[in-house]
Amino acid sequence: MHFIKDRGHRPLRGDSVTPRAVYVDRRNVLGKLAAGSAGIALASWAGRDALGQTASPGKLRPLPAGKSAVSGALTMEKLTPYLDVSTYNNFSEFGTDKSDPARHAGSLKTQPWTVVVEGEVKKPGTWDIDALLKLSAMEERIYRMRCVEGWSMVIPWVGYSLAELVRRVEPTGNAKFIQFVTLADKSQMPGLRSSVLDWPYVEGLRLDEAMHPLAMLAFGLYGEVLPNQNGAPVRLVVPWKYGFKSAKSIVRIRFVDKQPKTSWESAAASEYGFYSNVNPKVDHPRWSQASERRIGDDGLLSKKRPTLMFNGYEAQVGQLYAGMDLAKFY
Amino acid sequence: MNKLLSHRVVKPLLFLLALLPFASLLHGAWSNGLGPNPAEALTRGTGDWTLRFLCLTLAVTPLRQITGWVVVARWRRMLGLYSFFYGLLHFLCYAWLDMGFDVALIVRDIPKRPFVLVGTLSLLLMLPLAATSFNRALRALGARRWRLLHRLVYAIVPLGVLHFFWMRSAKNDFAEVAWYAIIVALLLAWRAWQSWRAHRAGITEPQRVTS
Question: Which of A23, A146, A195, A224 is most buried (most C-beta within 10 Å)?
Answer without folding.
Answer: A146
